[in-house]
Each structure stands twice: as C-alpha cells, then as structure tokens.
Amino acid sequence: MTLLGIAQIAIFFTLVLAVTKPAGVFMYRVFEGKRTFLHPILRPLERLIYWLGGVREDVEQTWVRYTASLISLSTFCFLFPYALQRLQGLFPFNPQHFSTGQAAQGATAMTPDLAFNTAVSFMTNTNWQSYVPETTVTYFVQMAALAVQNFVSAAVGIAVAVALIRGFARHTTKTIGNFWVDVTRGTVYILLPISIAAALFFVWQGSIQNFKPYDTVQTLEGSSQTIGQGPLASQLAIKMLGTNGGGYFNANSAHPYENPTPLSNELQMVLIFVLGAGLTYMFGKMVRDTRQGWALFGAMSVMFLAGAFICYWAEQRGNPTVTKLGVESAYNTAQPGGNMEGKELRFGNAMTALFATVTTDASCGAVIGMHDSFTPIGGLVPLFNIQTDEVIFGGVGAGLYSMLIYAIVAVFIGGLMVGRTPEYVGKKIEQKEVKMAIIAILATSMCILAFTAAGSVAQFAKDGYWNPPGPAAANTNNGGPHGFSEILYTYSSGAGNNGSAFAGINANTPWYNLTLGLDMLIARFLFIIPALAIAGSLAAKKLIPVTSGTLPTHGSLFVVLLIGTVIIVGALTYFPALSLGPIVEHFQMLSGKVF
C-alpha cells in the first residue's frame, strides 16, 4: 500500500464523517414533521401529492397497515416497469428503434423473463442488470421506469428504517407512522433536491444529458465506434444517492460519461454513504440519545475501514504468480504495480478498491472496476460485505434497519451473558423481537445458499432451458473455485439488493432471470416484514429505566459486541461456501494455479 492510497481512503472517510450529523439532523426534522429551509419551496408539492393520492398526513398506521401499504406500492412498482419494458417499442424517445419481442440489430430483446428480472430488480432497489443498457432499453424506459424506481425503492427503504426507529423511540402506542407520508417526505425533501443538485454537478463535470441518437465516430485506427447518448446525468445522481447502482451504460461508473473526473468519482462515493451514515445520527436524535447513533456509526466505520484496507492491500500486492520482468524464480515476487486487470486506470488501485468496498458496504452495486478480476482476497471483501446483509452504512434505510436487527441479536447475546432480559434503548427485547430478527437474517442466507447450490448443479444448457447434462455453471466465465465464486456472488448480490456482479457470468438466461428474480423478492420482503413487525411490537411497549444491570449500548464494549455478532453470524453461515470459492482460490494462487 502507498501513502497516497491510504490518504485517499482517509480523506473519503473524513468527508463521510463531516456530513453525517448535518444529514442526520435534516432527516430528523423531515420525518418528525418539523419545518426545514426547503419547506417554503417544497411544502406545496408535498400537499399536492397528498391531495392527489387521497392521503391524510395526520392519520397514522399500525405495522400491519404500514406493511400492506408497502406491499401494494411495491406490486404496482413491479407491474408498471414490466409493462413499459414489454411495450417499449410503442413509446417515444426511442431513437435507436429498440423493439419489444425482437431485438434491433446488435441489441438485446426485452423478453418476458428479462423484463421480469429487471422489474423485480429495480423495485427491490437491487438494480441487477442482465442486459446491456445501451443496446436494450429506450430513453423512455430509462426515465419513466428505471429512474422513477430508483427514487421509489430508495424512499421505501428509508420509510422502513424510520418506522423501525419509531418503534424504539415511541412507547405504549399501536402506530408507527404513515407509509405514504414517509415515502413522500423522503422523496420530496431528501432524494429529489440532492439528486437535482448532483445531476447538475455531474453535467458540469462532463456527464451527458440529452435525447440525441447515438453517435458513430471514426477511431484513430480507422474503424467505426458507436457512442451512446441519452438522459444519463439525471439517472446517475439518484442511482448513487439512492444506492441503486444500475448503470446507464454497461461499463457503469467506469464509463467516462458516467464518471468523468476524479472529483465526480469522489462525489459518487460520498453520495452512496451520505444517507446511510446520516440515518445513524437520526436514530440517536429520535431515541433522544445521540450516543446510540454514534455507536452504530462506530461499528459500521470499523468494518468499513477494515474491508477497504484489506481489499486495497490485496489488490496492491497483486498476484504473486506474475513476476517481475527477467525474474525467473517461481512464485515469490508480488505483481509489480499491483493487480491492475479490470481496474479503473484513471483513478488507480486504491480508489478502485475503495469504490468496490463502498458500493458493496451499501447496497449500491455501481462499479468502476470488475470484481471478477480482483485477487481472491480482494474479491472476498465485496462478497462478504454483501453477505453481512450490507449493514455497513448499507443502502438508504436498509443499512440501518439491518444493523438494528443485528443489534437486537447482539443485546440478546449480551443479556444471556449477564443473566438479564436484554434491553436496547429503553425497550425490553423479548421472544417475539428475537424470532423476527432471526427470520430476517435466515431469509437472506437461505436465498443465497439455496440458489447458489441449485445454480451450481442444476442441469441447464447455456440457453437456460432444461437440456441435460449441461450444468448452469456452464454460464460462468471461469472454472474451479472462481467459477463457483461467480455463482455465489450473483445470488449474494441479488439477495443483498446490491446488483453488482463478478461480471464473468452470463446471467441473461431464463434460469438466471427467474431464479434471481425470486432471490431478490424473497430476501427483500422476508427482511422488511419482520423488521416492521419488530417496530410494531416495540412501539407498544413501555419504556424501562436504566439500572445497574443494564448493558450499556452506547460505548466501545457494545460496538465490539455488535461487530462480533455481524462477523460471527456471517462467518458461521457463509464460511463453508467461501471456503469453496475465494479462500481455496487464494491458496491455489499461492501455489501457482490460477483460473
């Protein structure tokens, strides 16, 4: 590792730390219904939305009605983008003349299974893309379906986090807020203003925002190249802020239009973390003890920094089988200059490793390097980040409510140690809360491991249809443990609502499109529903006073306990699978065998 690389990571973390409190205070005021500096401009828009939707902002909901509202909105957010994709040839803003059932020359057909996968993906905030965007979807679909879902799915995640916080903050009440109000406020006051400002910034830096047909240019070698155009900057801003991650171009944030400069690269990473970090402080404000929020922030920060430096170390060290020029000794010299395969050469090894860590800590999925080209340990970091339910700052809302689920498990373990009923921020954690927390955690691991096992052995040919004896693993770009890692990463990314890939897998087949869609659906809603059930249960409880036997949950001891819970649960659950993938690949690399 170099001093410059370490400084780049430190500067990024300092920026995140600096924006955490202001973002948290602002979101606290928004969701508590207090006046902000944006109210004179945006309050009329908020009222108009309530009037059009028939929403009474003064009427709150129980957790059951809150969940029902969430599911009804999610259902519409699946059906509407699915219909737009299947009918995209009928709508305007289609200069490339992409059709529905039959693909244009050089383009991908938006088949029923692909449209299903994409609609589920953007509805669940995953943004997994089994297609090449610039050769598949029209400008209209990019705007009306995909960009809109980036806002809605992010707002839903924030709403769930806010509802769970209210469960801890309130007492002896049956309500946890109004879902429609929370989604509206999150969109109008938080996501929309920041996205507009960020989009203008990206245009200033060099991103495009137009409706032009694609350009065909002559390269210096004399061949022709088609360069995509379209309304990119507006989707780029929300894909980062909303931790969605779906690229406007197939190269995602490695494309010069999506990420023109080092300054735009830095802002994109800050946007990924800003709301997740701010929600920790908002949690402390709402439970009237900001130390509780800083404890969560501290646990997330330790795991983030550990992952960033491990990934950077592994990639900077490189592959020891690649020796210096003229050195014939077998495998004892690290790769000169580090492992630069699949890296963003404009930004270097440190920033590429940092970006990979940030995007998988949060459920973003945007990339500037191909994780498939990372060293085994370097690739293990983003993979394990996703498998922790992305509690390390995480997706907007999802990171906080996932971490609070783990906090419930942690205080339960702590309660067993001291022989008392576990307590957290003034609420007793009893049987129902622990059961719901375990169901949420098991739902994710079940999806990842079950679908990975099926994808590794199921007899499917490369076209995805039943045609023994070709295994689904034939769709991977590599064999051995690396090929297994590609499948494991795919289903981990889907269940974790991340959306990034090892990029060595051909996922646009009926098998992967359908199983990945189920993977995303099950993991998303079997995590959210238990979280809301916990919120309803906690809100109905009385506050209990702190006693000498209460485990403090705002100090370093609890931070260590919380980190240990996340890592141990992840290690016990996924260690056998990781051993078959990146871990064994690492030792084989050291002995000179690569895949």
Structure notes:
With 595 residues, this protein is mainly alpha-helical. Helices cover 60% and strands 3% of the residues. The chain has 16 helices and six strands. A hairpin with a 5-residue loop joins strand 5 (459-460) and strand 6 (466-471). Helix 1 (3-31) packs across helix 8, helix 9 (290-317) crosses helix 10 (348-361) and helix 11 (376-387) runs parallel beside helix 14 (480-495). Residues 101-106, 324-333 and 461-469 have low confidence and may be disordered.
Beta strand %: under 5%
Report the structural category. mainly alpha
Total number of β-strand segments? 6
Mean of the pLDDT scores? 87
Largest sheet: 2 strands, antiparallel
Poorly predicted spans: 101-106, 324-333, 461-469
Q: Give the end-to-end Cα distance, rounded to a whole number of Å.
A: 25 Å
SSE topology string: HHHHHHEEHHHHHHEEHEEHHH
Q: How are strands sequenced across the largest beta sheet?
A: 1-2
Number of helices: 16
- Rg, rounded, reads 23 Å
Helix content: 55-70%
Shape: globular
Can you give me a brief rundown of this structure?
The chain has 16 helices and 6 strands. It has helices at residues 3-31, 39-53, 63-86, 112-123, 139-169, 179-205, 232-241, 262-286, 290-317, 348-361, 376-387, 398-418, 431-457, 480-495, 510-539, 556-590, and strands at residues 215-218, 224-227, 423-424, 427-428, 459-460, 466-471. It starts with a helix and ends in a 5-residue tail after the last helix.
